[in-house]
Amino acid sequence: MELAEKDAVFNIFDMNLWYGDFQALHNLHFSIKKNEVTAIIGPSGCGKSTFIKTLNLMINMVPGVKMSGEIKYQDRNILQGSVDLVQLRKEIGMIFQKGNPFPQSIYNNVAYGPRIHGIKQKKKLDEIVEQSLKDVALWEEVKDRLDSNAMGLSGGQQQRLCIARAIATKPDVILMDEPTSALDPISTLKVEKLITKLKEDYTIVIVTHNMQQAARVSDKTAFFLNGEIVEFSDTDSLFSNPSDKRTEEYITGRFG
Amino acid sequence: MKDEQTITAVQQRLLKSRQGKAKKNEFTGRFIVTVAAIIMIVATISITIFLATKGLQSFLVSGVSPIEFLTSTDWNPTADENPSFGAFPFIFGTLAVTFLSALIAGPIGIGGAIFMSEIAPSWGKKVLQPVIELLVGIPSVVYGFIGLTVLVPFMRNTFSGAQTGFSLLSGVIVLSVMILPTITSIATDAMISLPSNLRQGSYALGATRWQTIKKVLIPAAIPSLLTAIVLGMARAFGEALAVQMVIGNVRAIPDSILEPAATLTTIITLNMGHTTYGSVENNTLWSMGLVLLILSFIFILIIRYLSSRRKL
Ligand SMILES: Nc1ncnc2c1ncn2[C@@H]1O[C@H](COP(=O)(O)OP(=O)(O)OP(=O)(O)O)[C@@H](O)[C@H]1O
Ligand SMILES: [Mg+2]
Q1: What is the domain extent for residue B284?
Q2: Residues A222-240: tens digit of each pLDDT
Q3: Which residue owns the Cα nearest ligand 1 atom 12?
Q4: Count of domains for chain B
Q5: Which of B61, B83, B112 is the last residue of a domain?
Q6: Which helix (H) or strand (E) holds B99?
Q7: What ipTM score was computed for the predicted complex, to two decimals?
């Protein structure tokens, strides 16, 4: 095995994934570094969602999935043996394409994670809820109606609430699968600003179809095609000076 | 040139005739469904009016006091002197079997629904679905017959408090089995139609399956789950035949669930045959029917209210 990179959160090595007989990911091999934003781009169906779901093993919910190779997280291969999913997902939060708040109060949404991980004191929960909502710049907008139902928030607010809900468990990593694709430009901008800010405390992996977004928010970019990594490098160099012809074609909009 | 013109002319004529036909079909279709709707509305309204006028006759014509009817526990309409018309024991019996059977069938039905939607979605539904359909298909007289043959002797032999075995509890158990499919199938639909991103959101935060069910899915489905229970109750309080065969049909409020009781429906079915149309006793049976109708309106209102609270 190759030497794992030191400040990496995930070391992915020779990783393959099959849905039944269909191989969706081929020999993935790269690292995701701490406190960086890693963007995953590529045409529809190339395996971006599949990949990001393996990082917190949400992929296990799909029946018939097989995986081989390594995803090293905290010095152990999460693809092998039994992994404590509760702990793993507490440390690795996830944001979905469409905001999915629970149909409960705003407060209970944010407090949900801390509660299931054992925090009971009201005071502690209050603190976490306030801090998390402040971190996503939602506190001012909702502080007077924490008890009202989260389904009443706008789409952009719902998505930021979901980010607050994810950071309330104090994760190390936040995975985002097209977090802004259902949002209007202003809400998108807010979430992007938020990502840039969250980078200081968290490692972020973001799947996006929006190349400008990848260029704006990420440090590293991986270009996926047909389940393989075509190119992985610094975002700046990938966009200004792609080394692979296919990358160039994709980012200049000639296919995909 | 000329050929082309004739062709377009023919086409236009064809088109027109097709449009004409479509218009006619449109009209016929609308006519049929409108008539169907009117028949339904007229039927419902006539039944309601008929039941209301018949049901009020015992109070307006026969001079039975509505207060006595609704609150007194004395039921002796055929007494030569001072006949009494207290239907409260039957109203009580109806409410008791309804709520108690919901209390038993509600948790079991919802439990089964959660099993099918969350625990074993692949084979759970395959096994439980036919079971539910079978339970629905069994006629109520058969339920009553089984209750009479199996449950009543069992009660008599098992509980010292149940002298005859005919009891409120026997009625409740038979009804619980009968309303179980209603509750289970509506509750299952409610659980299955929850958006899957709720489950994902919860699991992604590190929640276990049980935490997800208890803290996210059930709260999200609660209005629909309550609707399932209320619909089960609506079925329970209208059921007559099976209950009548096992409940004992006495005129008093039972002291315990092991004692016999009666419900509005069982009294109506038992007595409608031997009372003469227009007699006081016959009229009071209609009044019981009216009480049932009012109860069912209340159930409908509750269901409406619950459905309007659905957030998803
Ligand atoms: N549950 C599944 N069962 C079988 N095949 C699947 C499943 N989920 C995804 N796939 C297949 O795996 C491949 C990768 O899918 P994936 O959802 O990861 O693509 P994606 O890059 O996220 O696409 P998009 O940009 O459209 O979201 C596709 O060919 C898809 O059809
Ligand atoms: Mg995707």
Answers
A1: 75-311
A2: 999 999 999 999 999 999 9
A3: A24
A4: 2
A5: B61
A6: helix B88-114
A7: 0.92
